[in-house]
Amino acid sequence: MCVAAAQYTIGEPADFVAFATGVAAQVAHAAKRGAQLVVLPEYLALESAAMLAPDVRDDLARSLDALQPCWDDYLALAREVARRHGVLLLAGTFLLRMPSGRYRNRALLATPGGQVAFQDKLALTGYERASGIIEPGDELKVFATDCGRLAIDICYDVEFPLYARAQAQAGARLLLVPSCTDTAAGANRVRVGCRARALENPLYVACAVTAGEAPWSPALDSNTGGAGIYAPIDRGFPADGVVARSDDGWAIATLDLAAFDAHAGQAQVAVARDWPAQTRPAVERARVESL
Question: What predicted TM-score, i.e. pTM, was given to this entire model?
Answer without folding.
Answer: 0.97
